[in-house]
Amino acid sequence: KKKKTRSTFIQYDLRHAEQFSLCDAMQYIRAFEVGRSPTSSKYEMHIKLRTLKNGPVIRNRLRLPHPVKTDLRICVICPPDSKAAEEARKAGATLVGEDEVFDLVKAGTIEFERCICHTDSVQKMNKAGLGRILGPRGLMPNAKTGTVVKDVGLTVRNLVGGSEYREKQGVIRMPVGQLGFTPEDMQRNIRAFMETLKKDIAQISERVSKEIHEVVLSSTNSPGFTLNGDFRSANSVPVKDLSNPL
After folding, report:
1. Which residue among 50, 55, 137, 234 is least packed, with the fewest CB closer than 10 Å?
2. Which residues sit opposite 215 in a β-bridge?
3. pLDDT tens for the chain, residues 1 to 246
4. Maximum Cα–Cα distance across the chain
5. Can you state the angle between helices 22-32 and 183-204, rounded to 10 degrees?
6. How many angstroms separate the CA atoms of 147 and 164, rounded?
7. For the chain, how many helices (H) and strands (E)?
8. From residue 157, how far is each of 27, 185, 197 by CA, in Å?
9. Is 123 left (phi over 0), alpha (psi -120 to 50) or beta?
């Protein structure tokens, strides 16, 4: 008999899984990161969803109360001597222009992590044929992803220190903190992320059912710890102990 293919991802019963408060998870994670720089390793959230395999995916960007990465290099495609170019540079863009950007990209010099385009430069960008180079890297500006805009200054300011997340194989992963963050910093970031994610789920739930199944916290060099939603447990170490450098 032909095996029936699953339409959903396999989920395990969390009643049989050990779950941790935020402070306890941070304590164990920090033990795996001893000796490493508090800014070199990151805390990362893994949100496992109950969802269809072939349904629409969640994708969004938000600025956390305590930004995880503030050294993001942003390229802005817009007329080089325009007001938009001036605003982009003031907002923190590292590369601004049209022909100069096109030449660098075609030469393989792509020294930026985000690329946005002013609406006035879309036609020129498309004629330059950057899609085959930037597309596979996920850098090609697109109106659907909010990277083709009129107000480039505002967009750059939102991107600097912002974090992106996207559902893949029923899991959403996003950095939510640096090892040097305090438990209170982490709590505020996690709360902001979860509130935004729940809004995303509510918007998409009209078309397909999505529910949060498990929330896992890990770091660059640690395993994952399933969170139970509590800030600390009765046996947690004092919060100030988790606020000290490793």
Report:
1. 234
2. 47
3. 556 677 777 787 888 889 999 999 999 999 999 888 777 788 999 999 998 888 888 988 888 888 887 667 899 999 998 999 999 998 889 999 999 999 999 999 998 988 999 999 999 999 999 999 999 998 999 988 889 999 998 888 878 777 788 999 999 999 999 888 999 999 999 999 999 999 999 888 777 788 999 999 999 899 999 999 999 999 998 988 887 666
4. 67
5. 110
6. 13
7. 7, 10
8. 33, 21, 21
9. alpha
Residue in the structure block whose two tokens are 């739930």? 205
| Residue 85 DSSP symbol | H
Q: What separation in angstroms does the CA of 214 have from each of 18, 28, 52, 123, 217?
A: 12, 19, 16, 44, 10
146: Cα separation from own chain's centroid = 15
139/114 Cα distance (integer angstroms): 6
- Which of 11, 125, 136, 9 has the alpha carbon at shortest distance from 75? 125
Q: Cα torsion for 178, 241, 229, 16, to the nearest 10°?
A: 100
Burial label for 238, CB within 10 Å (0-12, 13-18, 19+), is: exposed
